[in-house]
Amino acid sequence: MGNNVNPFPSMKYISKEYFCDREYELEILKRSVKNGINTTLISARRLGKSALIYRVFEDLEEENHACVYVDIYDCAKLKDFTEALALSIFTKFPQKRGIGRRFFDFLKNLRPVISYDRLTGQPEITFDFAQPKEYEHTVRNLLHFLDNQQTQVVLAIDEFQQIAEFPEKNVEALLRTIIQTLKNTQFIFSGSKKHLMLEMFNTASRPFFSSTQTIGLVELQEDRYKAFIRQKFEERKRSIDDEAIDFILSWTLSHTYYTQVICNSVFARGKKKVTVEHVKQACDEQLTLNQVNYMQYRSLLSPIQWQLLVAIAKEGLVTEPQAQAFLRKYKIGAASSAQKALTALLDKEMVFSIETMEKTAYRVYNVFLMRWLERVF
Fold first, then answer.
1. What pTM was estimated for this model as a whole?
2. Which long-range contacts (CB under 8 A, 24 or more apart) does 13-19 make?
3. 2 falls in which pLDDT band (50, 70, 90)?
4. Contact by Cβ (8 Å): 29, 52
């Protein structure tokens, strides 16, 4: 892409040119695929799981691997999963040659309804089977179709923890049984609900127990992110102060999505020399633009949940949410009530936990929301 393109995409993966670091994780994933090892990839949302997968795909496809990505975040039952899997394969490969042509011929035998969105032109695939078992057979057939191609296949299933919440209670066992029969397909199971993912892959009674290696993503190292940001400005004949970059990474906690959004906004302003004041203006603008969304959260939470959310935001990181000093400082009430509120905030993904060898800490999930709360309240 040319120098006029904003080098800080925040909504989708473009190419390796716009991808920062993750060299260690990239190497592990590629090595695992080539050596027949399935991988579980876990991190908080918007920390770069999907971008890392597409980055891995970019290298693997240069070596003639067939790579398919399916996001099942919106899937609520096996029917949804089946349609999402079929659609991902359908849209991945051109229909006029190779795998695409073979898949189109194969798909017709499954009796799908293929339509196209009138606004976007994007294809949609639906199945309307009378018997639930037919969805199981279809998933089995789709995976075996991929496995029977004359190439190594990599299938990444994003937000994989969703299958644990399907009304059909046998989906984990179904997939595990199918996967054990495949010879040419490697899997990347990624998810953002850490406790569910760990339960699925670390509990001895669950079908996927000890079937993969696990990679946990954390925030990028600041020195590497700092060098990347500076480089992207310099490639476009611009400059950005060290103080400005330090402020960005501190304010966004080096969280990939929020850092990219701020850098994108700063770059879009067109300044030849970016200072910390320009960055602060971009941060203020983000909070102003999102304020209407943040204000509605108050009506969606109970008073104590809201008070606890504000308290965690203002503290930044809380290690003892039931400590009397913390409860008194923010007028939260009894420790038992605080624990119930914390559980609710975790379930609603308003707050997430960070585990270390020594302790568990809690932080507001949305960094922009956190900055707005600490400013307004």
1. 0.93
2. 13/50, 13/51, 13/54, 13/55, 15/58, 16/55, 16/58, 16/59, 18/232, 19/51, 19/55
3. low
4. yes
- Secondary structure, 3-state, the chain: CCCCCCCCCCCCCCCHHHCCCCHHHHHHHHHHHHCCCCEEEECCCCCCHHHHHHHHHHHHHHCCCEEEEEECCCCCCHHHHHHHHHHHHHHHCCCCCHHHHHHHHHHHCCCCEEEECCCCCCEEEECCCCCCHHHHHHHHHHHHHHHCCCCCEEEEEECHHHHHHCCCCCHHHHHHHHHCCCCCEEEEEEECCHHHHHHHHHCCCCCCCCCCEEEECCCCCHHHHHHHHHHHHHHCCCEECHHHHHHHHHHCCCCHHHHHHHHHHHHHCCCCEECHHHHHHHHHHHHHHHHHHHHHHHHHCCHHHHHHHHHHHHHCCECCCCCHHHHHHCCCCCHHHHHHHHHHHHHCCCEEEEECCCCEEEEECCHHHHHHHHHHC
pLDDT of residue 358: 81
Mean per-residue pLDDT of the chain: 95
331: burial class by Cβ within 10 Å (0-12, 13-18, 19+)? exposed
Tokens of 340: 């119930």
The CA–CA distances, whole Å, from 334 to 123, 254, 303, 341, 362 equal: 53, 34, 13, 11, 18
* Distance, CA of 321 to CA of 312 (rounded, Å): 8
CA quadruple 74, 78, 83, 89: dihedral sign: positive
Q: Which residues, at least 6 apart from 366, have a Cβ–Cβ distance to it below 8 Å?
A: 350
pLDDT tens-place string over residues 173-226: 999 999 999 999 999 999 999 999 999 999 999 999 999 999 999 999 999 999
